[in-house]
């Protein structure tokens, strides 16, 4: 029995270091997983604190928080620093550089009840090392949680279309809300950028259908506008054609009228010149009037002679049996007119038979 007890004790002592190592490893893994979920500095990448070696050199863009006997003493700025041995201790190291912090994906419901999965990137910097060290336990974790809650709150006040269209406004609202809460943490958020917005699959399909319908609608509208413009162009072409035709016809008639007027004017001028020449010949030559009187009588007789040859209707003077009186009547007409009128009568007498024949035909 004593041997059994001794064997058990020996086995327990042999296994104790292994159990302790397993426990330490389990605790480390649990701490790592917890910090990963919180989004802050985890167990393995936490910045190591510098040891008190009396003389220290603080790097550029860093601030060291020094405690003396467990109480805040001062903030060391970049450069040379002297610490009191055993009393002073560097408790926190804060980076003053701008830091990019990834915001994990999360679900949010819009005002029109559409669930969206969203993630983003937040850029911040430490502006007050004292507040960043003592104002919050884990600044990065607090910022991540504030960004997620603010994003859900802002998304809940907007519709899906507005969320997709107003990313810049949404980013600005989230940045303002985080800065208001982070004033006591010594942190300033420079900007927030939404990286991805992922609607549900059925919503994406519906949006694609809407986009396709909208494209078809625009195509139909553009086609109808094209037909309308084509009809307008054709009508305008017909209109211009008719206008040009009417202008051409108008110019044609104007030109014809001008030509006719010029022809009449020229003919009148020619007749006037002929009358003047005949009148001058009658008045200047002795016996001219007797010759003209004889010519008129001949034409008068000739005209009536031609009338007698045409169709059944003949107009005769009442005293045609007395030819001497017929000639005397012609001579009497001559005596009652002046020289110009006489010349015109001669011309008309030459044309009279032709006019009579034309009217009879």
Automatic annotation (TrEMBL):
<dbReference type="InterPro" id="IPR001107">
    <property type="entry name" value="Band_7"/>
</dbReference>
<dbReference type="InterPro" id="IPR036013">
    <property type="entry name" value="Band_7/SPFH_dom_sf"/>
</dbReference>
<dbReference type="GO" id="GO:0007005">
    <property type="term" value="P:mitochondrion organization"/>
</dbReference>
<dbReference type="GO" id="GO:0098552">
    <property type="term" value="C:side of membrane"/>
</dbReference>
<keyword id="KW-0496">Mitochondrion</keyword>
<dbReference type="GO" id="GO:0005739">
    <property type="term" value="C:mitochondrion"/>
</dbReference>
<dbReference type="Pfam" id="PF16200">
    <property type="entry name" value="Band_7_C"/>
</dbReference>
<comment type="similarity">
    <text>Belongs to the band 7/mec-2 family.</text>
</comment>
<dbReference type="Pfam" id="PF01145">
    <property type="entry name" value="Band_7"/>
</dbReference>
<dbReference type="InterPro" id="IPR001972">
    <property type="entry name" value="Stomatin_HflK_fam"/>
</dbReference>
<feature type="domain" description="Band 7">
    <location>
        <begin position="53"/>
        <end position="211"/>
    </location>
</feature>
<dbReference type="GO" id="GO:0005886">
    <property type="term" value="C:plasma membrane"/>
</dbReference>
<dbReference type="InterPro" id="IPR032435">
    <property type="entry name" value="STML2-like_C"/>
</dbReference>
<protein>
    <recommendedName>
        <fullName>Band 7 domain-containing protein</fullName>
    </recommendedName>
</protein>
<dbReference type="InterPro" id="IPR050710">
    <property type="entry name" value="Band7/mec-2_domain"/>
</dbReference>
């Amino acid at each position: 029995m004593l041997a059994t007890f001794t064997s058990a004790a020996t086995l327990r002592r042999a296994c104790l270091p292994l159990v302790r190592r397993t426990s330490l490893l389990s605790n480390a893994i649990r701490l790592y997983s917890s910090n990963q979920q919180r989004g802050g500095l985890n167990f393995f990448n936490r910045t190591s604190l510098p040891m008190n070696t009396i003389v220290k050199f603080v790097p550029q863009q860093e601030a060291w928080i020094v405690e003396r006997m467990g109480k805040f003493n001062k903030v060391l700025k970049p450069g040379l620093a002297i610490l009191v041995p055993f009393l002073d201790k560097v408790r926190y190291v804060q980076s003053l550089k701008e830091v990019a912090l990834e915001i994990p994906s999360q679900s949010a419901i819009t005002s029109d009840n559409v669930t969206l999965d969203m993630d983003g990137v937040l850029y911040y910097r430490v502006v007050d090392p004292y507040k960043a060290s003592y104002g919050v336990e884990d600044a990065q974790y607090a910022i991540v949680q504030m960004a997620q809650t603010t994003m859900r709150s802002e998304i809940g006040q907007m519709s899906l279309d507005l969320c997709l269209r107003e990313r810049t406004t949404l980013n600005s609202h989230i940045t303002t809300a985080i800065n208001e809460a982070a004033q006591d943490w010594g942190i300033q958020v420079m900007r927030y950028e939404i990286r991805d917005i992922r609607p549900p699959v059925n919503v994406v399909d519906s949006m694609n259908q809407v986009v396709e319908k909208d494209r078809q609608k625009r195509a139909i509208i553009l086609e109808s506008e094209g037909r309308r413009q084509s009809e307008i162009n054709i009508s305008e072409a017909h209109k211009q054609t008719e206008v040009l035709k009417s202008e051409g016809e108008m110019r044609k008639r104007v030109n014809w009228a001008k030509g006719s007027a010029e022809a009449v004017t020229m003919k009148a001028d020619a007749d006037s010149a002929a009358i003047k020449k005949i009148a001058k010949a009658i008045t200047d030559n002795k016996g001219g009037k007797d010759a003209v009187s004889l010519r008129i009588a001949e034409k008068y007789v000739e005209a009536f002679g031609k009338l007698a040859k045409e169709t059944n209707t003949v107009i005769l003077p009442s005293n045609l049996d007395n030819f001497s009186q017929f000639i005397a009547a012609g001579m009497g007409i001559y005596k009652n007119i002046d020289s110009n009128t006489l010349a015109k009568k001669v011309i008309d007498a030459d044309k009279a038979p032709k006019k009579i024949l034309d009217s009879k035909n």
